[in-house]
Amino acid sequence: MAETGDVFAFDAEQLELRRTVRRFCAEHSDEATVRRWMDSPAGYDPATWARLGGELGVLGLAAPDESGVVGGLVDQAVVAEELGAALLCGPVFGTIGLAIPALVMAGDGGLRDELLPPLVAGVRTAAFAVPERAGRFDPASITVGAVRAGGGWELTGWLAQVVDAAAADVLLVAASGPDGVALFAVEGTADGVDRELLSTMDLTRRQAAVRLSEAPARLLADPGDAERVIGYALDVGAVLLAAEQVGGAQRLLDLTVEYAKHRLQFGRPIGSFQAVKHRLADMLVAVEHARSTAYHAAWAIQGGTDDPWLATSIAQATCSQAYSRVAADTLQLHGGIGFTWEHQAHLYYKRAVTDAALLGSAEEHRNRIALAVLDRAVVPPSQVPPVAGVAEALRG
Amino acid sequence: MSAVTDAARVEEAARKVVAEHDPRQVSTRELLGACFDAGLAWVHFPEGLGGLGVSRGLQTVADEIVRAAGGPSAFSRNPIGYGMAAPTIREHAQSTEQARAWLRPLAAAEEIWCQLFSEPGAGSDLAGLATSAVPDGAEWVVNGQKVWTSLAHHARWGLLLARTDPDQPKHKGLSYFVLDMGAPGVETRPLRQMTGQAEFNEVYLNDARVPDAHRLGAVGDGWRVALTTLMNERTAIGAGSSLRGSGTIADAVALWAARPDCHTPVLRDRLAALWTRAEAHRLTGERARRSATTGSPGPEGSISKLVSAELNQQIYEFCMDLLGLEGTLYGSYAISEDGRDADWRGPIQQRFLRSRANTIEGGTSEVLRNILGERVLGLPGEPRTDAGKPWKEIPRG
Question: To the nearest whole number, what is the mean pLDDT of chain B?
Answer without folding.
Answer: 91
